[in-house]
Structure formats: structure tokens, C-alpha cells
Amino acid sequence: MTANAPGPEEVRKGTFRFPQRHFLSVFDLERPDVERLLDLAEGFVALNRQKAKKLDLLKGHTLINLFFEASTRTQSSFELAGKRLGADVVNMNPRTSSVAKGETLIDTAVTLNAMHPDILVVRHGASGAASLLSQKVSCSVVNAGDGQHEHPSQALLDALSLKRAFGRVEGLTVAICGDVLHSRVARSNVGMLGLLGARVRLVGPPTLIPSGADRWGVEIAHDLRTGLAGADVVMMLRLQLERMEGALVPSLREYFRLWGLDREKLARAAPHVRVMHPGPMNRGVEIDSDVADDLSVSLIQDQVEMGVAARMAILASMAARLDNG
């Protein structure tokens, strides 16, 4: 935590407020905003390692987790973040509620709005769903993943993991590898890492690199060994077979041979390389267990821990904005 980092008391007094009413996209943030969030999250990392983890920064506030898609890490970390900050947290499963009976997203928004929540955390399979909800409710909305569009809180926790591992994000070469086409994590990380001064390289077969990615201000490589050359960070992405239409990849065995991360391919990266993965992992498809489980190179478990702290920073600064107008 830096000397000028905002602590819980600063948030409580309203001197550090989330810069927007909603958190829908990393592209809505400026670099100073991100740096303040990262500093705040650093303080929450320390808190989360203590025996007593609870604060009352969100006391009296209601947080609703509305996840239209299955989630373990994101939903659990938002729930923990809200509870550790003192919020009343409600987890709703639309797949077994009125949505399953035909209720529209707008109807759901109107219904939830009538309950007067303060913060609504939304995951949905359609790109733009969180933004649409934000226009229909009076509370703050946090995008926890919308289709193939964005996953901004994941990008924040990834930046926090890198800052703690390297002491900085500026100047790092980060290779984001695999199924970039279907990855909202990749899109948010391109924005976040670029904002913080990292050099971003997208690596994957041509069928899994989005058209127009060459205009994102990134490098592009279609060979994994070439793409990993000199990289400080290798961020592997899950092969999202459920979103694919048609044969975009060969067999899973062939995909691992060409695009799966193992020791031999990782040797092309920088000697101090660190490996990341947003989870869930397909072991033996995009990453070898020998690499994923090696704590001398893997930040994967660290990412899970940083997820709670980063989301606490988001929620706490949002509550400060709500409390102080």
C-alpha cells in the first residue's frame, strides 16, 4: 500500500468516490482512477489476511448479485466483498426464478428496482445487458461480465496481481493467449493494461482472434512460441467451446499441442515470467497442470485472492459515492 493510498477511513469520509455511478467498462476509467482503486485494494488485501475481516463501510446498503450465467469465483468474491464491508447481500438465481418463466430483462430490472437495492452486480450472456439494466434502475450497476463484451472487475484484479508481483504494470509485456475471440476478460484487460502502460500482445490462431483486433493498439501473433518470446506475463484464456459455432479449432489434443501452455513453450518467455488464468481452467487443453500449479511462476491462486480485495475496493468507493452524492 503506497503512502498516499486511501484507507477505509478515507472512503468512509467520502474523499475517495468511484468516478462513475456505474462500473460497466474499463474504458470509462482514467488512469488516476485505476491507480486509486489499486491502492485501495492493496489495503483490503491486508485486511483480508487478518483474523477480523469486517468493516461497516457498506452498513445499511443492499447488494444484489444477479447472475444469469453460472459463476463460482466472481459471484463468491462479490458476496464476500459485500459481507466483509457490512452490506446486506442477496444472491439471486434468475435461471430458477421468473426469468425462467419468460420474464424479460427489463421486467426483472423494474422488479428489482422496486426493492430499492443500492448496488446491483450483474452477469449476463448478452453483450450490453449490464448497460441496459443501468438505464432502467436507480441504483449503481456493476458489470460482472456481459456476453463477449467486458469483465471490468476481472481486469482490475489482474492489474492488482501484476502490481503486487512486479511492483508495477507500466512497461510489462503481457501476452494474452488462446480464445481471444470469445473472451470478455481479454477485452477488458486490453483496455486496463494499455491504460496502465503495459505492452499487450494477443496470441492465438487466426480463427480465435477478433476481426479488427489490429486496431486495438496491441501486437498480434499467430504462433504461441513466437508470441511468448520475451513476455513478462502469460495470460492464458479458457477455450470457450460453448460459445463457438462451427469448427474454429482442431481437436482438443491438437489444440493443446499447438496452443496449450507447457514448460517447453513457456521457456520462450522472460526468465522471470509469471502465468495467469482467469479460470475456470481446462487442464490439458489451454494449460498444463505442471505450469498452473507451480507457485514459483503461477499467479492463478493469487488472482483468486486479489478478486475479493479488488471488488471490495469497487464496492467501498461506490458506497462512498452513494453516501456523498
What would you note in describing this structure?
- The chain is α/β, with parallel strands linked by helices.
- Helix content is 38%, strand content 14%.
- It contains 12 helices and 9 strands.
- The strands form 2 sheets. The chain has a 5-stranded parallel sheet with strand order 7-6-5-8-9.
- The longest helix is centred in the last third of the chain and has 25 residues, at 300-324.
- The radius of gyration is 19 Å and the shape is globular.
Order of helices and strands: HHEHEHEHEHEHEEHEHHEHH
- How much strand content do the residues show? 5-15%
Shape: globular
Low-pLDDT segments, ≥5 res? none
User: Number of helical segments?
Assistant: 12
What value does the Rg take, in angstroms? 19 Å
Largest sheet: 5 strands, parallel
Q: How many strand segments?
A: 9
Helix content: 25-40%
Spatial separation of the terminal alpha carbons: 27 Å
List keywords for this structure.
single chain; 325 residues; alpha/beta; 5-stranded parallel sheet; 14% strand; globular
Write the layout of secondary structure elements.
Elements (H helix, E strand, L loop, with lengths): L7 H5 L18 H18 L13 E6 L5 H12 L3 E5 L12 H9 L5 E6 L4 H6 L5 E7 L5 H15 L6 E5 L6 H12 L3 E5 L15 E3 L2 H5 L4 E4 L15 H8 L3 H4 L7 E3 L12 H4 L7 H25 L1
Parallel strand pairs: 1-2, 1-3, 3-4, 5-6, 5-8, 6-7, 8-9
